[in-house]
Design a protein that fits this description.
Length: 332
């Protein structure tokens, strides 16, 4: 759904839509109006209906024309990726894989569901409202089965291990997503699996929840939840564009440059603070929120720890995992 005139612009600039991207679109429309006026001047016998047809054709042609700032996407396609609901996105097919063993998020969800199913659909939460120690231990034991395990040398600070849920970010993320997706809920000190979800799990396995979990992650979950940045930059709006680009080339630095080129107003939300420039801050957020705590949590990529070359910090080495291309097939 497109934003209203007075709503915040989805580009993240902090401005109202009418004073940001809508203004840019208005300039394009003004240029197109000049073209139509020229057509009318050169063809004075055209009727109003015929002029309307000319205008519609020019509008359609302009919106369907590949734009270099969008890496060749047309404004129409980009608009769909930014504003369409999860089920209405075009130019990409999202498949549910038959095998989800390499996805940490889905494996953790299976642990939660299995524990509940063994006890009539629910289990006791800790006094803090977290998952019980039993599930945390089981989740710890899964780490060697994930591609990310090759880089997890310091388990005490790992995203994929911890003594309790508070110290186990990937597990905590999965539990939050399951609640947002309406699969589980907490009541009276216990976690319950919804009756409908129990039936789905029995009939279709963990695959039944892949799409609801992914939709929750990309449309409802707050990507800044696990970090401490004050800047409120909602990268979820651009998740499909970023995923398309990273699948195309697997280069973090190139991805950051492409995002800045396509959505330059994002830098306005990243004030220089003496430590990082706006582009550096935005790049760090993309690496943390999109790559490490979305793509990697889902098992779509692995990221080698950063390294220094000649005293310069080099970007993390990213490797696309087979699961990504099984799930997302782009046709643009």
């Amino acid at each position: 759904m497109k934003p209203g005139r007075n709503e915040p612009c989805p580009c993240g600039s902090g401005k109202k839509y009418k004073r940001c991207c809508m203004d840019s679109i208005s300039k394009q429309h003004a240029s197109m109006l000049d073209d139509i006026k020229q057509v009318a001047a050169m063809n004075p016998n055209l009727s109003l209906e015929e002029l309307n047809i000319v205008a519609e054709q020019k509008m359609r042609a302009a919106n369907e024309r590949p734009h270099p700032d969008f890496c060749g996407l047309s404004p129409t396609q980009m608009s769909n990726w930014l504003y369409a609901s999860f089920k209405e996105v075009e130019g990409v097919t999202i498949h549910t894989p038959d095998d989800l063993r390499t996805s940490p998020v889905m494996r953790y969800l299976a642990l939660i569901l299995d524990e509940a199913m063994q006890s009539d659909g629910s289990f006791k939460a800790t006094s803090k409202g977290n998952l019980p120690t039993k599930i945390v231990k089981q989740a710890n034991e899964l780490l060697p089965e994930f591609a990310v395990s090759q880089f997890e040398r310091h388990i005490s600070i790992s995203e994929y291990a911890g003594s309790n849920e508070d110290k186990f970010n990937a597990l905590h993320y999965s539990r939050i997503l399951a609640e947002i997706a309406g699969i589980i809920y907490r009541r009276s000190g216990r976690y319950h699996v919804k009756k409908s979800a129990q039936k789905q799990y029995l009939n279709h396995g963990i695959q039944a929840f892949f799409t609801p979990m992914l939709e929750a992650a990309t449309t409802q979950y707050n990507w800044g939840y696990l970090d401490g940045w004050e800047q409120d930059i909602d990268l979820r709006t651009f998740w499909l564009f970023m995923l398309w680009r990273i699948q195309s080339h697997g280069n973090t630095e190139q991805l950051i440059e492409e995002v800045i080129t396509a959505f330059p107003d994002l830098l306005l939300r990243c004030p220089e603070d003496g430590y990082m420039s706006p582009s550096q801050l935005l790049g760090t957020m993309i690496e943390s929120r999109f790559i490490k705590r979305f793509l990697e949590f889902w098992g779509l990529v692995t990221v080698a720890p950063f390294r220094h070359v000649n005293e310069l910090r080099m970007s993390d080495k990213l490797e696309i995992q087979p699961l990504m291309k099984l799930v997302f097939q782009f046709d643009v």
